[in-house]
Amino acid sequence: MLGTIVNTAAILLGTLLGLLLKKGLPERFQDVIMKGLALCVLLIGISGALKGENTLIAILSIAIGAIIGEIIDLDRRLNNLGQLLEARFSKGDGEQTVARAFVTSSLLFCVGAMAIVGSLQSGLTGDHEMIYTKSMLDGISSIIFASSLGYGVVFSAVAVFVYQGAIVLLAQWIAPFLSDAVIAEMTCTGSLLIIALSLNMLGLTRIKVANYLPALLLPILLCLFL
Fold it and tell me: What are the residue ranges spanned by the domains of the chain?
């Protein structure tokens, strides 16, 4: 778990630095930074989506995942959680909503090959090198996110700890199901959600991205048949 703990600490530290930076930035600069960040998120999403090799898997994952997510209504539940956290911790300073910051940063930190493969390496061989590299990237990203989206980014550290920690602890059991093809399709599907996040950040759409989260796991099953 050492790699996961370091990754979590990097996000917490980056968020703290980002919040300190945010206090010294005029609102117009925060808006410019957020839009620039949205463009970077769009680039990350596009580059990740291109890693998929079977378009049908991505289509089915999004379609089926959306139905499951809509039935459960994950977006509403996550926003309710965000509102509870906001009511508990907000100081009325006009920050972005907790849910928005949490979902955006958590998806970026959890989706992708580095989170999955790095955690598998940590759990199977004790090699934390890839997670250490990811920690540095996440730490820098969390500074930028916190400076534009607010303190809600800090809760993504919990998501990273739980997600990557679970992979580390269950590595020997789940590794046989996570082939290179499965990881590529999971990355592709997750990156489509990241593209949706970037469009929301730019104010172009109002997609309920959280309702598509079940799609992230479906490539594991679909790759067995397609």
Answer: 2-222
